[in-house]
Amino acid sequence: MIVTRSALRRIAIALPCCVLLMATRAAADDAVRIEGNFTQGGLAIGHAAPGSIVTLDGASVRVGRDGLFILGFGREAPAQAALLVVRPDGVAVRRLLQIEQREYDIQRIDGLPEQMVTPEDPAFLQRIADERALIQAAWAHDTPSTDFLGGFAWPVIAPISGIYGSQRILNGEPRQPHYGVDMAPPVGTPVAAPADGIVRLAESDLYFTGGTVVIDHGFGLSSTLMHMASVTVILGQRVRQGDIVGTVGATGRATGPHLDWRMNWQDARIDPQLLVPPMPATAAESETSNQ
Which of 3, 48, 264, 273 could form a disulfide with 67 if both were Cys (CB 3.0 to 4.6 A apart)? Predict the structure, then answer.
């Protein structure tokens, strides 16, 4: 319930000052609204009073002029996250967010060339380091654009072949978890932008991810589309949801044709499947028939 100014005046006449202060803080707390997926890999959208300062677990969060902010929870996010909102009037609102803990699948992939699993050549290691820095720089953009408010759509309609959070074992060696969702259409299938945004990376031949595009959706939220056979956008280009940005391939470290769609909010890896409707029945049926 939001306490109005007239109500506060009536309370001030009848109750001590300490109770008035409590009522003011309750009104401030009610004014902070957050909706979304409070789970590992989830994303939430919040609103606070314009001019508020917001932090999540001590880290600064961008706040729009209208008080809009977003929060992301990574794959290993702990069960609780501390949100602090400091209003322009100095009132601090603290919330302890409960984050659902998930269980993840284990995937085993054998038959990869050993050089792709454990590169040892110094030239390859330097290339990998340079490309990692390139991708991280693309992820680091944190702009006031609110393109993410337009929602998200599947970049391709195809059977899902890999899911967020799964732990991959490559040639018998455990590797980092999979942070995206894989879709497996034929080579050459057009890849669409999942949401509006600005292209922050457009590379056709990265060592691990092959043809790669990073789209900045604003407020530190971005999509990365990987393993593409071709990239048809350029750095700095503005795209709309549904615009073609490339075609499906098997470039980089891949065992077959697929598109790997990943999302980042600041340093948190977000599960794209939590932001889109279920894959259409035609693709799901195709997946079932191929099993």
Answer: 48
Q: For residue range 242-257, list pLDDT tens digits in order.
A: 999 999 999 998 889 9
Task: Please tell me the pTM assigned to this model.
Answer: 0.83
Same domain, 25 and 158: no
Q: Could you tell me the residue range of the domain that residue 247 belongs to?
A: 106-289
Output the six-digit token pair for 208. Answer: 């691990």
Q: Which residue has the tokens 């009037």?
A: 89
Are the C-beta atoms of residues 63 and 69 closer than 8 Å to each other? yes
**65/219 Cα distance (integer angstroms):** 12
In what order do the strands lie in the sheet containing 80-86? 59-61, 53-56, 80-86, 92-98
Asked if 123 and 260 sit in the same domain, the reply is: yes
Select from 61, 80, 98 the last residue of a domain: 98
- The secondary structure of residue 223, as a DSSP letter, is E
Under DSSP, is residue 135 helix (H, G, I), strand (E, B) or coil? helix
Going from the C-alpha of 229 to that of each of 113, 180, 184, 205, 210, the distances in angstroms are: 19, 18, 13, 9, 8
- What CATH number is associated with residue 11? 2.60.40
| Residue where a domain terminates, one of 98, 131, 151 | 98
Our count of domains for the chain comes to 2
Consecutive 10-residue runs of the chain (291 residues): their mean pLDDT?
Answer: 33 30 45 95 97 97 97 97 97 97 79 60 84 96 97 97 84 79 97 98 96 98 98 98 98 93 96 96 53 43
Beta-bridge partner residues of 177: 167
